[in-house]
Amino acid sequence: MAISGRTRLYAVLGDPIAQAQAPSLLNPLFERSGVDAVLVPVHAPPDRLDEVVAGLKATANLDGLLVTVPHKLAMCGHADELSDAAALLGSTNALRREADGRWYADNFDGHGFVRGLAAEDRQWTGRAVALAGAGGAGLAVAAALLAAGAARIDVRDPDPGRLSHLVARLTSRWPDGVAIASGPPEPDTAIAVNATPLGLRPEDPLPFDPADLPPATLVADIIMHPAETRLLRTAAALGLPTHPGIHMLTHQLPLYQDFFRLGR
Description:
alpha/beta
């Protein structure tokens, strides 16, 4: 679809942003839906986020924002209204401008992750999940897995503040659903998830060692580029099943279509 003076704008915010896969998926969705719009990547360093968002909000033909690492928690402060999911998590990955100019925020990361697992017939009901990363994405994934029947989320993160934030948020809804991991994964672990940025760069250390996992544990990564992270390669070499990050985004597309009211 050609860009014209009537084209509506959407932006995806992140730091870094080169890894973002949303433009390659959302722009074809706009075209299929007959929507004259384009999604562009915006590199927003954390110390300039407020300034960047203020400028984008002042752009009259900007209709929506997507949010990636590390801004999902901070962007809640730029919304006028939060969905129930965003309020529970204190995290958002999508904001839309309403007809009255107010900004409404929601979070679809967890729903996309769980839908991606279900589409691949992965099993987690009644089992434990080992989660690395207590930031915005980790919160969303943990909440969605608990809502979908996981027995417990065992979470680890080097930042005590992020850990405390995740535990406080989720134990209000699932009092026995979250534990801070201090040792190797428990024998009932069904899935081990990387919800950290580790893996975006080739030199990054592993977020956890797949060799410590029980046999047949599914190793999932939310990183979308590279498609096969070092974590997934290491797990596959050990004979463990793997689940790449792109599934989380592709299964959010119908949710974005409804949220942004595309094709209506």
